Amino acid sequence: MRAKRSALMVSSRPIVSAVHGFVGADGESPESIDARGNSALIAAALAASVKRFVLLSVTGASPTHPMSLHRAKYSAELELAQSGLSFTIIRCAPFLETWISVIGEKLETTGEALVLGDGQNPINFVSVRDVAKLVALSLADAALQGERLELGGVEDLDFNAFAGQLIAASGKPGQIKRVPLPALRARFPTLPATRLKDLLQPNQSR
Question: Which end of the chain is more exposed for a tag (fewer CB within 10 A), N or C?
Answer without folding.
Answer: N
